[in-house]
Design brief:
6 helices
């Protein structure tokens, strides 16, 4: 509600404005216009979201998966540990106590070492492929929609981890890196 001043002669227009404000407050015209405007705004924003296209969540998830696979290839995964232990057990069962030391080392530890390297290499290869696919995806998508910078960064991290993991796995598998000890 508006307040009326004592000095009516000085501001006749102010009194008219106060009366107009009182009238709109009594009828509620001002409050009924606001919900309509907000509904129009909501409809306009929904239309803009529909036209915006995909949000890139799948690309972000692919980038994170690529980095995680690359990290697993470097640190070793559960499946690589199980495969290594299995190969070690098979090697122990196949060798007899009369076998030479070189045969026992190769069968007991060498095959297990290579099995771990093989699984690390597979994880690294998966990280590398996933990262490259995420980085190449914008070339086949909407031309006007750029890829978020964080997605590129995480995907490049996945590619880098995949390359390093693959290199280490190959070196480990071939015996160049931490090969078996020479026996007699």
């Amino acid at each position: 509600m508006g307040t009326k001043t004592v000095d009516n002669a000085a501001a006749p227009e102010a009194a008219a404005t106060d009366e107009a404000t009182e009238t709109t407050e009594e009828t509620g015209a001002e409050t009924s216009e606001r919900p309509e405007a907000s509904e129009e705004t909501v409809e306009a924003s929904e239309t803009a979201e529909d036209q915006a296209g995909p949000s890139g969540v799948g690309q972000g998830a692919g980038a994170v998966v690529s980095a995680a696979l690359g990290l697993v290839s470097l640190t070793g995964g559960w499946i690589g540990t199980v495969a290594s232990a299995r190969e070690s057990l098979i090697g122990q069962l196949e060798t007899s106590s009369s076998s030479s030391v070189a045969t026992m080392v190769k069968e007991g530890y060498g095959d297990a070492w290579q099995a771990g390297a093989l699984w690390a290499g597979l994880f690294a290869l998966a990280a590398l492929i996933t990262g490259v696919v995420v980085l190449a995806r914008p070339a086949f998508g909407a031309p006007g929609r750029p890829q978020a910078p964080w997605i590129k960064s995480v995907a490049w991290a996945g590619v880098a981890l995949g390359v390093v993991g693959l290199l280490l796995a190959v070196l480990k598998y071939t015996g160049v890196l931490l090969g078996l000890p020479a026996t007699g």
